[in-house]
Amino acid sequence: MRRLWLVFAQAVTISVAVLFVITTLKPEWLQNGTPGSVVAIFEAPGNAPPPASSGEPGTYAAAADRSMPAVVHVFTSKATTTQRHPLLDDPLFRHFFGDGNGKDNAPRQRASGLGSGVIVSPDGFILTNNHVIDGADEIEVALNDGRKFPAQLVGRDPETDLAVLRVVTAEQLPVITFAAGDTLRVGDVVLAIGNPFGVGQTVTMGIISALGRNQLGINTFENYIQTDAAINPGNSGGALVDSAGNLVGINTAIYSRSGGSLGIGFAIPVSLARNVLEQIVVSGEVTRGWVGVEIQEITPELAESFGLGDTSGALIAGVLRGSPAERAGIRPGDVLVGVAGRQVRDTKSMLELVAALPPGQIAEFRIRRAAAEIDLKVEVGRRPTPGAANTRRK
């Protein structure tokens, strides 16, 4: 009997010791009553959970840390003239009350604006939106670390809503890295970095919702990246970066009925921004080809009325007098189907193909007139520089 009691006491002691060890080292084994390693035995091999990542899953802090220092705040100001009170133009009123500041001296004040920009070169070149600096006579940029520098306008391109600034300093400036080519896909994660509402540098996260958005009526040349990353007033000119922190676009506009973000934002792709940047840095402006025609999209109804087999090409709706197109023999009603050996699919592709031609070049334009296709030699002219686009942007 004494031996049985000793065996029982030893068993209880060992059990308590095992329980203590499990409670201390593996408490999760007691929550479901079954060790986690046992559960895996009953799972199908094809449905096994993926192995844990050795990095930091669920965070984009590394991408933000890499790109945020190169995103700056852009502060602008310009002198404006306020409207004189109409009574100051009344002689009787001026007789009794004086003429205030004088009939020809309207009160003046300064209007300020804000936006964002991206440092793209160690030489201090900064990409931003044209509408951020449009009309400004003073521009200042502030870095994320608090440093501030006056900036000069190098050049601007209203037709893509891009502008290039430059700060001259002996201090070292952080520079963003451009993404390699157009590698974006719908569904890729992106970060939008800027200064929304002037609250300070902010990072928002979303995905690429669509690529190649055009015909939005924002700019002449449109090839937008659409994203649901929150973009608000003040974000204009800021960076859209990929999950590695590389620049993929310049935030430029939103679709909104309230003035705030509704999850539909647009950014200029880095390929277009790089082309504009290089031209402005080299020559101070962007040069594009021009032939002087008004074009119209070919709808199925127009195709039927003109006896066309399909809707490909661009309908010539008008030809400017004295333009390269008129001198070459292009007429209203012609359908442009090819430029310099490349097919014209629609009005957008026609505009891009002509704009890419250097002024002075003789290019072959293929047109469809009646039932025949003919080739015409056109001496490409220089596209006139437009004024600032009158559109709502954020």
TrEMBL record:
<protein>
    <submittedName>
        <fullName>2-alkenal reductase</fullName>
    </submittedName>
</protein>
<keyword id="KW-0677">Repeat</keyword>
<feature type="binding site">
    <location>
        <position position="131"/>
    </location>
    <ligand>
        <name>substrate</name>
    </ligand>
</feature>
<keyword id="KW-0645">Protease</keyword>
<feature type="binding site">
    <location>
        <begin position="234"/>
        <end position="236"/>
    </location>
    <ligand>
        <name>substrate</name>
    </ligand>
</feature>
<feature type="domain" description="PDZ">
    <location>
        <begin position="292"/>
        <end position="346"/>
    </location>
</feature>
<dbReference type="InterPro" id="IPR036034">
    <property type="entry name" value="PDZ_sf"/>
</dbReference>
<dbReference type="Pfam" id="PF13365">
    <property type="entry name" value="Trypsin_2"/>
</dbReference>
<dbReference type="GO" id="GO:0042597">
    <property type="term" value="C:periplasmic space"/>
</dbReference>
<feature type="active site" description="Charge relay system">
    <location>
        <position position="236"/>
    </location>
</feature>
<dbReference type="GO" id="GO:0006508">
    <property type="term" value="P:proteolysis"/>
</dbReference>
<dbReference type="InterPro" id="IPR011782">
    <property type="entry name" value="Pept_S1C_Do"/>
</dbReference>
<feature type="binding site">
    <location>
        <position position="161"/>
    </location>
    <ligand>
        <name>substrate</name>
    </ligand>
</feature>
<dbReference type="Pfam" id="PF17820">
    <property type="entry name" value="PDZ_6"/>
</dbReference>
<dbReference type="InterPro" id="IPR009003">
    <property type="entry name" value="Peptidase_S1_PA"/>
</dbReference>
<feature type="active site" description="Charge relay system">
    <location>
        <position position="161"/>
    </location>
</feature>
<keyword id="KW-0732">Signal</keyword>
<keyword id="KW-0378">Hydrolase</keyword>
<keyword id="KW-0720">Serine protease</keyword>
<dbReference type="GO" id="GO:0004252">
    <property type="term" value="F:serine-type endopeptidase activity"/>
</dbReference>
<dbReference type="InterPro" id="IPR051201">
    <property type="entry name" value="Chloro_Bact_Ser_Proteases"/>
</dbReference>
<dbReference type="InterPro" id="IPR041489">
    <property type="entry name" value="PDZ_6"/>
</dbReference>
<dbReference type="InterPro" id="IPR001478">
    <property type="entry name" value="PDZ"/>
</dbReference>
<keyword id="KW-0574">Periplasm</keyword>
<feature type="active site" description="Charge relay system">
    <location>
        <position position="131"/>
    </location>
</feature>
<dbReference type="InterPro" id="IPR001940">
    <property type="entry name" value="Peptidase_S1C"/>
</dbReference>
<comment type="similarity">
    <text>Belongs to the peptidase S1C family.</text>
</comment>
